Amino acid sequence: MWTWLKFASTPLFTARARSSLAANARRVSEPLATRSVSPTRASQSIARGVAQSRRSDAAPRSRQVNHHEPPKRALPSTVLGLPPPPPRPRLTREEMVARYRNPPHPHAYGFRGPPSPERLRTLARAERDRYKPASFTKGSKNAARPASRPTPPQKSSEDYKEKEWDVFVDLNRARSEPAAAIAHDDRSLVQFYHLLPPKSEPDPALLLTRFLESTSDESLSRYNAHAIINLYHSAQHWESSRSQKTMTSRHYSLLIALFGALSVITSAYESTLLPRRATPSALLVQMIPQAYSDHWKFIKLVAKDKEEAGFSTGLIDRYWLMRQESAAAVAIPEEERIYRRREFNAHLKRAMAYHRRLHVQEPLFHTDICSTLVSHGAEVHADHVLDQMGRILLERPGLDPLLRKVLWQLALTRSDISSEARSRFADVVNAHLTDAAAQDKPSSPRPPPRSVTMKSGEIIVDVAPPTLDDVYVALFRVVTSSFDMSTFEWPDIAQWARTEVTALLSQTHSSSHADLFWQHIILLATASPSALEVQATQSPDIQLGDDVYRRRWIFVCSLLAILRVCEAQAYSADANTRRVLSSFWNMWLTAHRASPHSCPAPVERAILLGFIRTAGLAGDETLLDEIIGALPTLQHLLLKYEDYVRTGPFGDSGRAGAALELGAAYVQIHARAGSLDWAGVCCAVHRAKTVTTEDGLNNYANQLMRHLLRLRRSSAAAELYHVLVENVIKFADQTRVEMCQVFALELSTFPLAMQLHDERVMPRTKMCAVLVALTRGVFRQRFARINSTVARNLVASIDHHEYTPAPRTREHAHFRWTLVTGVASGAHDAVLDLLAKRLAKSSDPSYEFLSRFIVGIAGQLLKQRLFRAAARLLDLMPARHPARARLITLTIVRLSRGTAYHVGRKVWLKHRSVWVNDRHRLSRAAVLYKFARFNARDPHPTATMTLRRQRLEPRRPDVAYRTAMQLLVRAGRIRAANRLHTAIQTAGHVHEKTASVLGNILLYSRLRPRRQRRLLRQVRAVFAKLDELCASPNFRPDRVTLNIVLKAVIHWDLAIDVSKLRYLFNQLIASGYPGAPLPIYLGRAETAFDMGKIQRVMQDVPRGPIHFARHVRPLYRQFMSAFRARGDWESTRILSRQVAALRDRVAERERVRLIKTSIGRSRARYAREHARLVSSAG
């Protein structure tokens, strides 16, 4: 309250605003029933409100919102007697989306939730009092009205009906003008409803329906949801005031209109016209349980009314749809989800029991229930669905066409059916199909199509009902795609398949829907999802009405189903699997030899490839030999299918998938026969190159390479291997890391490389070329880690084939990057084994090459904190290596930072003889070992007691002095650090840059520790130490000094607010730091502390290059922390985006520099080699 009064006293709060606020307060305090406003004055005020709302839509919306008075809304022109307002310009889709994505607060409209019944009564009384005749006023019956309020003429019930008709006419006019429908908000609808006298008994459902008809998707807003809620509550109150006997079809029609509104808003929600966070569906979902309970009350009272029979399922459907929508918008706990699922299943069982009890003779309601069960996916248990369907079939001897349609749809969509429920369902279906077949006659006419439209359930059936063939297809579709593989055993599958085939072959009925039957056979025959676009072409020599043909195809469908299951579980490779496959192969071969030309190529190809894949995966050598015995037929089939692939109706992905299967078939069949056709393999590989997805590449590599590994006899395997490696190079050149990894994962398989090399199938030179190509692919993606299996296989292949690139070549760099990337990807054990073998032989040509970049490998190991692997690498390093001392020092420093005490002590004791045996000349590693105990981050103060007594005269004084100063500061011995700094300055053997580094360490020590109540003291201490350091001759402030000073200042939150902090950041950007300045809303900020010293430090900073890691990133991080501590999230987000952009820019610049450097080095090497050859030739 004090904040609001303080704002009201500011000059921004004008006198006009105060007067309007006072008027609004008086209006709110005045009772609604006592307001006396004439119709003329009301019309003028509403007209002004309409004009003001138009101006406010055209002008930008103000931030000040009056929460006390609801905004003035215009009543329809037909009610007020005014001419219709001119239509507003229609909004474009971009404007509409922008408007709905940034909706104003609900309180801005004067709406604070659904109105209570008392509030509705008050509104109704106020609206009726405006138009009451004089005889109905309080006091004297003949009392006259005041002169300021003219008495309207008395109106009869016909006048009220005419007014109601005018309201509906205006709403229908708004239907043709979508922009005008926005004006019909919740308040206006409630006024329309309460304008009618009680004796007229208005239908709220009719009013709600007309409102929904007049509202288009483009004009949906929060008003629609509020209007629906208000009308529902008012109608609910109106119904509850009546007796229970009058709750008949009126309440039912209201519920239908309510769920029509839910469907309208749901469609708008799905079309992204409304924002996800502020959708009105969340408000409507809260009303559904109450509406559901009201509906069940209505069903109990009116149980004999058949008009509402199909509405129960529609109500459940809408209820579950809105529940799913609310669950997607808000995170719901798992317990709540389980509770909702159980609740919904209970509602379904109740609805089905109700329909089975009351409407047994009406199949339409069974259809409605089954459609609801089909459309809800995995939320409803599939066993319950099948049991209910079987129960309905048992109760209905004569299968209704609509119910048969639902059975077909159910079988096509359900996929989570257990074996027990499926067997029960199959028994019921077989019994029912037998009875239905006995009743059907071949000469019976085709039943006419039925068209059923339900407003509530939204079920429209305008196609011909399915026949017995469709039921067969549905049953086979369930068998093919819906097997629960984990619950079946092989004997059960074989027995079930034989039973089904026997039962289906015994059926001899006409095929009335042969085209639909044929289409689903093609879908069943195709083995890959990419071939779903195949359209069936009827051969002229096939008779569709032939019973033998239909029986043959029924057997084909069952066979394909069994092959699908066998292929999915072929890795078990037991004797029972092979026996089942052999028996089915004999059955198929007998049927194929009886009529070899009756089966089209796609279906025959699917069956043969299914047998080939299943037998190859199961390792059935005998069955593969039998398939090879039918080689002429298979060759003819493959050639025919190759022509079909070229001219078939495939898309890009479908053609590529067909080419993959074609290549797999060539490799399997011809390699088994010992005559692999190189032209066919090249054709398959060339067609498979069109695959541009990772799944296609994975499928391609998996199929071909797995068959090569299993068959172990392939004359052209080396050529195929080389072609695949070329694809690796192509995708590596295109910097497609994912595809290169997929190829390399299959191509770098160590057993395959071993096999190809040991059997002398691939020459040594070809194998080295393959490894160089893979190394090149790894080199191209050096900034991304590759798969650890790929890296390990590459290193193992290099080790096995003893591959050593020639010195001073491009392959040298690729090989080095392969080993370094292998270490970074987790294959350090294989890399260390390779180095141990190569470095143990001094005569190895790669000895000198490996000893050069061994420091880079050690750096990768230390970055990943693989300290024991780094220690092992030090043991492998030659004793005469020139970089051995530097590598040992680097290892000890990294071990000290990582607090690896035991490993560091072992490394020091083993390799300390590298340095000169002088106790007074200490190196950096010796300092860390003796005085920090390999804990440089948090050393113990006692361990640093003797540090100042030593004579620090190392070979590199800057590194040793900096390490000693850091240890003293981190141990908390600030005075000892000052004395050491004085001693170093007195000696005078320190460079200017080293003096700045040591001064920055001491300056930063003034911030340890930082306490909230001593920020001013710390700022003063930092500036005092800065003055002391600047007085010394060798100290020069740099950008690190500026960062330390800024860190001390910006943490002083009592004196530095957000505006001053932004001003300080803008000053740094103006001084040369990269980035963009922040906006300052209140003008130039006046600082409350002395800016002279900070500006002097900015001026003294040398104008050298700005390093991102040392200067820019620490500066941005501390400013982001300061803004976050002050609650300025806008500035924090801006700085976060800026630092991310700078990081990406620096990484790209570094990548380009490395590429140019490598290219320049390779060109220089080639130039030197060319000059040497020319000179030797001359």
TrEMBL record:
Residues 35-46 have a biased composition (Polar residues). Residues 30-91, 128-161 are annotated as: Disordered. Residues 54-72 have a biased composition (Basic and acidic residues). This is Uncharacterized protein. The lineage of its organism: Eukaryota, Fungi, Dikarya, Basidiomycota, Agaricomycotina.
